[in-house]
Amino acid sequence: MKSLAIEREFGSGGREVGLKVAETAGISYYDSNLLDKVTERYGESANILNSYDEKWTGSLLFNISMAAGYSQGNDQSKIYQMGYEVAETIQRLHRNGPCVFIGRCATDILKNDKNVLRVFIYSSDEKKRIARVVKTENVSESEAKKMMDKRDRARRNYFRFWTQKDWADRGNYDLELNTSILSTEECAKILLYAMGK
């Protein structure tokens, strides 16, 4: 059976799909808990990793300051080491057996492995995305829309920073699933079939 790597729009239900796949297949699931695995192996503080995880690259000025810090060899260069540690951890966990990875550029880190299914989950219906965010985050519709825009921008920037690729480019993925048409249960069934379960 293949591992599964998912990139997803905020509010698309991608995390829920990944959880359903992992539970049904009886395999490990890694989202933000992946950082705990990095900490176990490399000893970095989970708080430091969390402060950079999938959000820090949203500011161009911050990216420039990070690059300047890296070239000068000061503490800011740690972010590049952490990026390596996250990638190495994803590769190691996959080698240990099939699992589900959500975000953290796993679709690109594992792109050359034929035993990985790389998927992008999105919703073409903005109203459905907003409704999902209102429910899961307990916020108003206007706040949900702002959260969607902010999180998707951060994910896009994070992906571009580490891969030099466009997050929404279909060429990055083996499959795309639209949760405005398919339920999360249907998506999970499709993915399980494609993974060889």
Along the chain, the helix and strand elements come as EHEHHHHEHEHHEH
Using the 3D structure, state the CATH architecture.
Answer: 3-Layer(aba) Sandwich
- How many distinct beta strands? 5
Largest pleated sheet: 5 strands, parallel
CATH T-level topology: Rossmann fold
What is the end-to-end distance? 6 Å
CATH superfamily (homologous) name: P-loop containing nucleotide triphosphate hydrolases
Q: Return the domain count.
A: 1
CATH class: Alpha Beta
Structural description of this entry:
The protein has 197 residues and is α/β, with parallel strands linked by helices. It has one domain: Rossmann fold. Helices cover 56% and strands 12% of the residues. It has a 5-stranded parallel beta sheet with strand order 2-3-1-4-5, with helices on both faces. Helix 1 packs across helix 9, helix 2 packs across helix 5 (78-95) and helix 7 crosses helix 8. The termini are close together.
Tell me briefly what this model is.
With 197 residues, the chain is of the alpha/beta class. It has nine helices and five strands, in the order E-H-E-H-H-H-H-E-H-E-H-H-E-H.
How do the helices and strands line up, and which of them pair or pack?
Blueprint: E1 3-8, H1 14-25, E2 28-30, H2 34-42, H3 46-52, H4 60-72, H5 78-95, E3 99-102, H6 106-109, E4 116-122, H7 126-137, H8 141-163, E5 175-178, H9 184-195
Parallel strand pairs: 1-3, 1-4, 2-3, 4-5
